[in-house]
Write a structure and sequence with these properties.
The protein is of the alpha+beta class. The chain has helices at 8-15, 20-29, 76-79, 94-97, and strands at residues 36-41, 47-52. Strands 1-2 form a two-stranded antiparallel sheet. The longest helix is centred in the first third of the chain and has 10 residues, at 20-29.
Length: 100
C-alpha cells in the first residue's frame, strides 16, 4: 500500500485522530504477534522506517543501524526534524508505553 499526503501537517493530524490514534496506541502496547513495517519519505528530504515485531530484518533493517524511537526521537516530527509543534497530542505518552 502506498499513500501520498499534501503535507506533513495533514499526515500528522490524521495519525493522531480517531480511529487511527486508538489503533496505534493499542498496537504499541500489544501487537498480538503482527509484524509492522512503515516507511516515510519526504519530498524535500528526510526519511524514516519503523519496524515492530518482525521475525527477521527487512528493508533498511538489512543495512542501516537500528535505534529505538524513544526519547528525543519518539515523534515523527522530531525524527524528521520538522519545525513547529505537534498538531495534536501523541496517541499515548511514551512513559505509558515503555516502562524502562
Amino acid at each position: 500500500m502506498r499513500q501520498y499526503w499534501r503535507d506533513f501537517e495533514s499526515l500528522e493530524r490524521w495519525t493522531r485522530s480517531e480511529p487511527h490514534r486508538a489503533w496505534w496506541k493499542n498496537f504499541l502496547r500489544d501487537s498480538g504477534g503482527t509484524g509492522f513495517w512503515h516507511e516515510t519519505y519526504a519530498l524535500r528530504g528526510g526519511f524514516e522506517a519503523i519496524y515492530d515485531d518482525l521475525p527477521q530484518p527487512i528493508g533498511m533493517m538489512k543495512f542501516a543501524p537500528l535505534q529505538p524511537a524513544r526519547g528525543s526521537i519518539f515523534s515523527a516530527r522530531q525524527r524528521l526534524r520538522r519545525e513547529g509543534s505537534e498538531s495534536s497530542p501523541a496517541p499515548a505518552p511514551e512513559t505509558d508505553l515503555y516502562r524502562e
